């Protein structure tokens, strides 16, 4: 097994997920699934205009090296990313600053569960920011059961007490995937990673088999402007 982002061959445990974190670049299952696309059909060209939210270290480097100056790493809290230069971007307040039809690639993994505003509007505006041939790759934690969505007022301590340390204000549950995300963007009825990538490729990139045919937090949605349903 080999990390398809940095080439590292050693992996360490995450809570309840043995042997999944690349000990060199820190990549996780979802990051490496995204990299399968970005090393393949969705490889950015030099100068491509890219917006990368919550920029993972290895993926950020790969995209910056591939695309050059068109790459922008952004987050609501740039201080969390000492590894790279990150601009502040608040998806709830700054989303209107994105020009329609201006981006070649948008990447956001495990971001939508944190944003404290209407996620469907944010997702729609991100889709509209894509060029006609642009691509968005994204993932959210997907759990068994129902969808819940809750915003509360208060300071950080109040929110930590309410939501716990993850600060997930919404929960994407498999029971309602088509009625939530699936009403904003076209997502597959059933998830099957082996329709796009060979099984030996998935094994080599250390994508555990339980992520191949079930919607999980490692499922990467690949969408274009044509997939915007809202
Ligand atoms: Zn790596």
Defining traits:
11 strands; 21% helix; 230 residues; six-stranded mixed β-sheet; alpha/beta; 6 helices; binds zinc ion; Rossmann fold
Descriptive report:
It is built from six helices and eleven strands. The chain is globular, with a radius of gyration of 17 Å. Strand 6 (103-109), helix 3 and strand 7 (130-139) form a beta-alpha-beta unit. The strands form three sheets. The chain has a six-stranded mixed sheet. Strands 8-10-9 form a three-stranded mixed sheet, with no helix packed on it. It has helices at residues 29-38, 57-67, 119-128, 156-163, 181-184, 199-204; strands at residues 11-14, 17-22, 50-53, 71-75, 87-88, 103-109, 130-139, 142-143, 148-149, 170-173, 221-223. The longest helix is centred in the first third of the chain and has 11 residues, at 57-67. It is an alpha/beta fold and 230 residues long. It has one domain (11-224): Rossmann fold. The relative contact order is 0.16. The model has no long low-confidence stretch (mean pLDDT 97). The structure holds zinc ion (ZN). Zinc ion binds at residues 3, 5-6, 8, 22, 24-25, 27, 58.
């Amino acid at each position: 097994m080999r990390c398809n982002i940095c080439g590292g061959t050693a992996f360490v445990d995450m809570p309840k997920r043995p042997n999944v974190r690349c000990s060199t670049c820190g990549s996780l299952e979802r990051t490496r699934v995204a990299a399968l696309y970005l090393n393949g059909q969705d490889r950015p060209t030099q100068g491509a205009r890219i917006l990368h939210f919550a920029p993972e270290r290895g993926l950020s480097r790969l995209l910056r090296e591939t695309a050059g100056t068109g790459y922008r790493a952004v987050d609501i809290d740039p201080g969390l990313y000492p590894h790279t230069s990150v601009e502040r971007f608040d998806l709830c307040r700054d989303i209107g600053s994105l020009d329609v039809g201006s981006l070649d690639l948008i990447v956001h993994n495990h971001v939508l569960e944190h944003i404290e505003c209407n996620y469907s509007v944010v997702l729609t505006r991100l889709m509209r920011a894509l060029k006609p041939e642009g691509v968005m790759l994204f993932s959210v934690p997907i759990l068994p059961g129902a969808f819940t969505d809750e915003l509360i007022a208060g300071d950080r301590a109040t929110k930590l007490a309410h939501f716990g340390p993850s600060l997930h204000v919404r929960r994407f549950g498999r029971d309602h995937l088509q009625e939530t995300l699936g009403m904003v963007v076209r997502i597959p009825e059933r998830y099957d990673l082996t329709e796009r990538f060979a099984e030996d490729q998935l094994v080599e990139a250390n994508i555990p088999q339980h992520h191949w045919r079930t919607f999980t937090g490692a499922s990467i949605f690949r969408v274009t402007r044509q997939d915007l349903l809202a």
